[in-house]
Amino acid sequence: MPANRFSTLLLSSACLSALIAFPVFAADDAAMIPEIVVTPNRAPVPLSKVASSVTVIDRQDIERQNKATVTELLRQVPGVTIANNGAPGQTSTVFMRGTNSNHVLVMIDGMVVNDPSQPGNAFDFANISMNNIERVEVLRGPQSTLYGSQAIGGVINIITRQGVGKPRSNAYAEYGSYNTYRTGAGSNGEIGNTSYSFGVSQFHTSGISSLDSRLGGQERDASDIYNLSLNVASKLSDIFTAKTNLRYNRTNSEFDTPGSFVRPADDPDPINDSRQFNGRIAGELTLLDGKWTQELGVSALDLNRSQITEYYDASFNTYFGRQNYQGTRQTIDWVHRLRPWDNHLITLGTEAWQEDFKTDMLAKVNVGNKAVFADHQFNITDNAFMNYGLRLDDHQAFGRQFTWKVAPGYLIKETSTRLKATYGTGFKAPSLSQLYDPSSGNALLNPERSKGWDAGFEQNLWGDKVTFGATYFRNDIDQLISFASAPPYRALNLGKARTEGVESTFAYRPNIDWTLSGSYVYTLSQDRAASQELLRRPKHQANLVATYNYSEQLDVGANARYSSNRRDIDINSPYGRLDVKSFTTLDLYGNYRINPNLTAYGRLENLLDKDYEEVYGYGMLGRTAYAGIKAQF
Question: Could you tell me where the DSSP H helices lie in 318-446?
Fold first, then answer.
């Protein structure tokens, strides 16, 4: 690493540590998440025994902030960068630790939902509302050992609500700026030996022009999002439980196309219509007094999306007035969780999946993969713990791929200091579009391969009133797939990339009413083949969140977010690049409990009314206000 980069990273950490010395700052994400997490080991594990960097958006965060989409809460997670093509309902992608958006594996209740119909299998967060969601676990760093392809940058696991106790129902309604309204209802609980949760929601906004007003955008691009979620578990005997998870999303959004040579940038007609269904059926068998649990499951993803652009495109060719894309994924997995001795967890599993993809111009193509994996989490001593894992994938297109990971940790009890480190390898399989697209596909592509590591600490002070930490990370990625800009004009393994930086987190909790927390992340993301920065990844990001329980009836909060400049494509030049300006936003929110079953809430977002972009050419919302009411009964 060049000396100036290393000095910058050290200076970033030193500056944060200095800030922590003042009583208004402190604690890392460990202080804000549940004690038990499931994503790092595909099994419940105490957070204190996890060396990987994990952040959880829990139910308390969801209820307190009342955000409309998962994306809005992910913006507060250290190491995560959002690139949104304008207002809610528009394409929204996630970068983790500077890696590509298709290097992030996204799951809902353990089902992979990355889009097989997208050119790189990235996941679009535009259509995921907070409907029936219990928590979101964000696991950073290479995770291919347990999760296979795409988990180079990390994993986002969206976990729906579980039914517990007496059945209860809930409903909410909200209205705000730009004729934005959302409504929803649900129920969860236990009936006999069956637990359930159910939720349905609807979101509409008349929106703003997706094309930035500074570039001439005037007409509004509306969006409608519908979600349906069902989660059922039936305990059929003392040792066997049957599980069913279903989710349906429908998004209908108008959009603009800055830089298009075919249609006006501020086009009033184009519509994205996306329909996604994902479901899973599984059986869980518990043997040997709970020391051996196995789960056999089958899951399916069916995603259909259409771009409807008749008015302008039909004048050239009616065939292109509507373009349809379909991607499906079928998976069968069998996972065993063994606890043969105290403080030992062994996870063994096998899985097989097949993806299918077709468009109006491409007949159905498919690719399959089979894998076996093993993971062992254990205590070396009372203070030291270790996690390691191995995986072998056999991919239909390019053959076998071996990945591994090791993650040790050590607790210094005398100072309440936790030291942690991880090292892992990963890979990203070529997508079906990259392999078989008739105009640019290449069936001879190799997988992208990565090596990544991190090392850091977490510190508690003053009876856990103050917690803070910092983690250095680095990822080296080879064989990156990109499209050649010269003959043969097809997908090739051309690229190399390196991402590195420091994630720093802090929190201060002087009493049960006050919490002040935040993060600062410094990231260097470089395309080493072209010697230039990777697009849409700022070097500096910071978040500060303050919450205050004024009384049993009223709580309030604020979130300030800063992002430095980021490089992006100049839509006015085929190969040009430019800087998207830095920005700072401020949001306020509050809840007032009218009675134990009825709560009124409100949000003021972008209070400073900043004009800013996350993707060049696409303007974000200015100052907005929302008010709603939610009930439990």
Answer: 432-436
